[in-house]
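>> received
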Amino acid sequence: MATDSNRLGDTTATETATRLVHRNINNPNAVETDSSISSGEVTNHVEKHAEDLIQWKRHVERVKSKVLDQIQGHLSDLLDKALTESVQTFTQNENHGNNHVNHVNNNHVTRDGTVTTTNNNENSHRTHTEKDGKVFMDRRSILDDLFEINHIRTIYHMFISVLFLFIISTLAVDYIDQGRLVLEFDLLSYAFGKLHIVGLAWLLMFSYTLAVPYYALALWGTLYHRSPVQGVLSVGAGLVLSALQAAVLGVLPIYVVFHYQLPPASRFIIILEQIRFLMKSYSFIRENVPVILKHKTKEGEGPRFPTFSSYLYFLFAPTLIYRESYPRNPHIRWSYVGVTFAKILGCLFYGYFILVRLCIPVFMNDSNKPFSTRTLVLALFHATLPGMLLLLLAFFAFLHCWLNAFAEMLRFADRMFYKDWWNSTSFANYYRTWNVVVHDWLYYYGYRDFLWLSRRKFRTAAMLSVFVVSALVHEYVFTLGFGFFYPVMFCLFAFFGVAFNFTLNDNRKSPVWNIMMWTCLFIGQGVMVCLYCQEWYAQIHCPPLQYHVMITLQCHVMIALQYHVMITLQYCSTML
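>> returned
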């Protein structure tokens, strides 16, 4: 398009200049009148006019490019809003038709095509609009669409070729050092050890989450409208359920992690599943309690509860927002499921080779050297590349492959688990698009509920509270996963995250800010990999006194790094 446009502009300018020459040559009167003008001056005038036309054409192209960049984000928001409104309209029309069918033959047709018998006076499934909460719709993941483009798929193939290079280099080094080909995965077997204990702990947490929150809500809903002391009943039920949640989903996973001395990957599985069950059970109760409070049962009618099958489906669905029904695909593509799980396995081996080839040799050798600021800085910049690769692998393996695999097996149609975070020019947009699943939960149950409780008076406090909760949860996961408290993740979220959210905000639209975002991501991942690896080996090798000195020096370096980053961002915002 751009090449054709340039050719068209150059051709137009040339034709205009040619017409001017022909007009002057073929017009005798003009020649007689302008006899004083030399042919050289005419040629210079024509060339100048043609050059002006070309310059004007280039200026128009630059203006067009700037206009397209500015309206691209607005057009994307408008399309998302139009899709949401169309789904809402379709759902309202469908419910209107369902109500008409219910009036005639007492049947209710759900979105997945099943028919259930209901009473004429019983409410049908609720229609969720954007005002009520998240609206689910049939849409694919962005990478699935992008991988259909040959150019994007080639980039994916390049990452696969890097994995092959890691394998070949590992085999070559082992053959040179040991005289034989060795391809052992001892690190993976260690990290995922004691999986039988992990399975038993998961089964216990799942059984509790499946039974207790559902039947506790059903029992409370049955007694609420009949009880003369509704407030006392609600507070008592809330306290009992909170105590059970704290005991089974709070204390039990921590006890299993420390009592059985689980390795890191097994610890992360239990802790992440603990948080997932807590978030899902909270969403289930949070979405259904207002419905029970508003729905006053008539004499002879029972309270309206969600079906047990819908709750069971929600526990496995790749979302943290409860709905009685979701948009569903007509069939399961088992080949897609198999390929997706194979990609997850490939990502595990990819991460293994990154750690074995790029991280462990460096930090294991550094642990035997005297600690210095120079060693820390060199290790930090050495860790930026493996840190960024691990971040991309975690994103692709979990947010794309793992969630899409379960969505396909459950015929879950809404695959918007992330957005195009890689195009972000602000950290505010990056936080919204990196992990849409968790962001939706924090937005609807954290940010919006905080605004509702404060009557929309403290928006900044609501945003800060979400950041603090996210920072605490991330630090909790890393502390229990690695087995030591080292608040790198908390500092990155609570300090850098808040600063970047307000400094690199949505007003930054220039591509320069996308470069700044990626640069900050590289540095942040390098800081995390460097400090956590050094702390891991410090727990093993460092004596207590040397250990405390090292922690103090690292804290000073982190503070200095934070100061220089903030000064750089302020300078860039002033210049741009």
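>> The first helix runs from residue 2 to 26.
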